[in-house]
Amino acid sequence: TYYKSVPFGFCLILFVTLFLCPSMQVNFVACQLFALLMAVWFRIYLHPSKTSPFIRHVVATLLGFYLALFCFGWYSLHFLVQSGLSYSVMVFAGLEHMHKYCFIVTLGYLISCQITRVYVFDYGMYSADFTGPMMVITQKITSLAFEIHDGKTSLKGVCVRMPTLLEYLSYNCNFMGILAGPTCSYNDYMAFIEGTCYQPHHQENANGKENGKYKQSEPSSKNDVISKLCTCAISLGIYLSLCTLLPVEHSINDGFVSSTPFHLQVIYLYLAMLALRPKYYFVWTLADAINNAAGFGFNGYNKDGSPRWDLISNLRILDIEFATSFKMFLDNWNIQTALWLKRVCYERCRINPMAATFLLSAMWHGVYPGYYLTFLTGIAMTMAARAVRHNIRPYFQGSDSHKRIYDVMTWAGTQVAISYTVAPFVLLAVGPSLKFYRSWYYCLHLLCLLVVLALPVKSRRLQAKEQQDGLKDNQADHNSTDNNCNQKEKAT
Q1: How far is it, in rounded angstroms, from Cα 335 to Cα 357?
Q2: Cα 299 to Cα 308: distance, rounded to the nearest angstrom
Q3: Contact criterion met (CB below 8 Å) for 171 and 186
């Protein structure tokens, strides 16, 4: 009776899939729907109160490998090889450099598989893309390696225990995240397996105090799962209805470019990208629903006492569609990947961390040239957006009407900038990507260059350092004033 409403969302997605999906997409959706049913069964019949963590690890891993074999055949052996190589590095490498070696080996193996798949097998085709799950496994492997290193060296990590091989495989290849992720913390996953993920939140409400009204041993995820399944069905229906009507490739058609006014080309590109995004909304929201159905993803309570199930959510759709800055869009798109990039690169790179993070993101995504054009353009867009926000935004903060005008202008600018930046990501090859930018006369590239040169802005690290120095100076002045006052009191 706990999940008697789940079949409604399941049947809704199944209906949309069978009647609208091309055959090559059915396997993935069918496996994810099977994983959804297994997640409900896993929570009810393999609950931590009924079975041991060992059994839960074994079942989660075996189900994960079954789904991988069904979708990718023998290619799924790469998941085992990648996990085995990285685990060997973690076991035999010294603690001081273990995370670096693990990062190089894991990312290198991923890139080699991407090169083989793209340039040997099926360039431009997404069918049977076994490197997709490997991308998520790469995130998990490197995150865990950095957590162990940081925890052992007393830096900032909290994971201090080396996992067993079974725990490691379960974390990397469990059925809930083997096909589409999302990435999660190793400690959060272990808390879910052991049944301790709800304990820190039992006695907290909006005021952080115990309240019998909000206190419950295990919150229900039913409403969140149903809501996310409905979102999946709507997203899938929108994508499959519009993707053929508004293809991005049409924006570089010679007849379209020559006969269409520029402002209509801009509108078409925005609508084409708007029609493309629901595909990602469907995949990531369904993956989130699967984890929630299994009992994973609890993140405390809202102010009204309702449970939050967004611990490993990968996107916030409304914040994406109404983003008023480049950063706001990126912060709400593929959230877990953004957090991974921040942990393993941005916070650790000493020289130009922003450029290094964008470059790592391009390498992680794959070897298509369009990916690199997108992320290189993203560097220029981010720098220009920071300069605009730092220098122009303060002039619009005087009144509510000015703020609304600024928000509308920045929303329109953000949507155009995102569409312009991401176009090569969809077109993939160098020729079509450069043809697209030529049709736009590289206008946003030039605009970003002018903005960065005309409106310089200090890096965030320099600003943070200056703030810290200012706080130290204020503290020193405060201490000096206290000492002078004490001396005067003593003299009196």
Answers
A1: 14
A2: 5
A3: yes
Please state, as a whole number, how many other Cβ atoms lie within 10 Å of the Cβ of residue 227.
15
Q: Which residues of 380-407 are buried (b: 16+ CB within 10 A; e: fewer)?
A: bbbbbbbbbbeeeeeebeeeeeeeeebe
- Most confident of the following: 12-26, 372-386, 456-470: 372-386
Phi/psi at 20 (nearest 5 deg)? Answer: -120, -25
Distances 474 to 462, 471, 483 between C-alpha atoms, Å? 18, 5, 14
How does pLDDT run across 214-270, given as a tens digit for each residue? Answer: 444 688 899 999 999 999 999 999 998 898 899 999 999 999 999 999 999 999 999
- Please identify every residue annotated as catalytic: 334, 365
Cβ neighbours of 222 (radius 10 Å): 16
Angstrom distance (rounded) from CA 209 to CA 206:
8
DSSP structure string for 44-87: HHS-TTTS-HHHHHHHHHHHHHHHHHHHHGGGGHHHHHHHHHHH
Report the distance separating Cα 124 and Cα 27, nearest Å: 19
Q: Is the preceding omega at residue 182 within 30 degrees of 0, hence cis?
A: yes
For the record, the structure tokens of 482 come out as: 């206290």
> Can you read off the two tokens belonging to residue 428?
């993939």
Contact 449, 380 (CB under 8 A): yes
**3-state class of 321 per DSSP?**
helix
Q: Delimit the domains of the chain by residue range.
A: 1-43+223-313, 49-194, 315-478
pLDDT at 489: 55
Are 141 and 86 in contact by the 8 Å Cβ rule? The answer is: yes
CB proximity list for 381: less than 8 A, separation 6 or greater:
326, 417, 421, 444, 448
Q: What is the DSSP letter of 249?
A: G
Residue 333, beta-bridge partner list: 315
Distance of CA 86 to the CA centre of its chain: 22
